[in-house]
């Protein structure tokens, strides 16, 4: 056999790293929220109320005392008849609590103020707040969303001033507080806050945010994890387990990154060499039950096979006896009605038909059909169609002693036995004829093989060339037939039109045909489908070709025959042609190559589908479905394109379905059109570009700073200095900024006191450069 040009075995790939899908941390790994032991009255309390995480602490400490998720769960203890309110990390202590967890937020806004009040109680309790006058005697510094609605601030004022009786309150924007913590307090820059619910772009001039030029993109971490959930649901619609928000959030944080050149990377990310490093395999936890059933030994399997074979022989013998009984019965009927026909040959057709009706026939035509059916059955039996079971040795001279004895010398039982022996003799003779035919075919085949061998020995190159030409012709014929078969699916194709013509011709007689045959049929009013004397369809074998054309049977049979011819020629070439390899076969050329399938690499990553390999090993569908490796693979997710697609929404919101501009486009319009457009030292645009500051949870995505630098350089004048930096701690720096602001002189006139609230109402705020502006001043 000719050697292959490539490796005959499948290319071996190194194993991919498997990452377990991380869920929420609860149970034994939970750490209780600490209680603060250095509480002091009159010390401001800084509270960064993020929609994802709350950060709370007194400003006499450099770090927040409590950092916990903004979640709440209510549990009804039926024995104690009490409803327990669980907040923050404590909701993870039990799976029942986690299943009933809720948030007081709907998007960036608070919608459940009862929950907020409970969470504030929880925060103040852990800060160790005490009071001798029933009031909270600490100023409050609190974060609020950009362009906070009036009803939100009003409700918060009411809780703080009326429920807790705080002396004074100040509100600010978390991203500006973060910038304040990372600057001198009088700096200029562009603050990009990528948070959990929204992304904001705020220009800062001399330490004050310019609210009139601020923009917000309604996309953040929450929307990103929801988008990942939708993408994975579409990618794996039959994934056996349900992914929750904790899974997708952790996947987003751990494996997504911002692409420096999205269009170029998305074009090549599914290339095999790149996909090898970009594809992340995520394994959903699954328990695989071990099959403890004892496997049967080879001796036991062989014994079972022998029993099945013996049982099959017994069934074949029983079936053969029943067939012989039925054939003998049919032979009796044939003899009886043949004699009946001879005895009544002198009768007129009408009298003969009367006798037939008396014997149970409908009419003369029914009798003819019955006799034809009997004749066909007996003829088929005599031709040796019944060759089931193993053939026994038979001596023709002694096997059927009653066949040559006249019937008048036999008893009734012997006559019945004689009929069986005649059938057996006819079957034996038919088998002998078939053996002779097969022997002649084998001799012809051996002669052809000898001629082929002599040809190969004489001129191998000529033999190979001829066989290759025959193979090419067969493949071309196969493709033509396949194309013809496909054309039947198009009702406008010529083949489909011809097929419809055949159908119309068959139905023409039923739809008012004016042909002479149809007129004859209509004149014979008593004619039916069974006894119409004018119906000659089927008398010739060629009549049935019309049905073969309609059902495409002839094309399918020719396709199958051509395929067998191709396989036969390829087997010869593989055996004798040194230049013909497995890769040259028609099947190999038509085989699916998973490396060239974008869909395969997108779903299964840079590895072949193990289902195909298991099928090649001969495993049954049941064995494949229950195989431990298959179960493990079915619980895996390949995270590749989504790694860059989801973060890219910050720069192209249209990907996520938002009709908004991205970060770079907003910054371009702000810097080059809405500020003073002065790119020399001292100009607003120059000062802003000298400090592009990013903060918030999404700023932790790898590549965020590099992408901003690339995009900004694409629209800035050549030579303009550009500096992009990230907050030291994007998560905690808003609280650090509150701490710094509370302990500086900048906070002196930044609070709204309880007296001012009572005098001016909830619409009153004080601007301090790090919060929202008064609408009346804009």
TrEMBL record:
Region of interest: Disordered: 380-419, 506-541
Stretches of the chain forming a coiled coil according to its record: 294-322, 420-498
Pfam families per UniProt: Actin (PF00022)
Predominant location category: nucleus
InterPro entries for the chain: Actin, ATPase_NBD
GO cellular component: nucleus
GO BP terms in the entry: DNA damage response
Gene3D superfamilies: 3.30.420.40, Actin, Chain A, domain 4 (3.90.640.10)
Keywords: Coiled coil, DNA damage, Nucleus, Transcription, Transcription regulation
Localization: Nucleus
CDD domains: ASKHA_NBD_Arp5
Recorded family membership: Belongs to the actin family.
Protein name according to UniProt: Uncharacterized protein
Annotated organism of origin: Candida maltosa (strain Xu316)
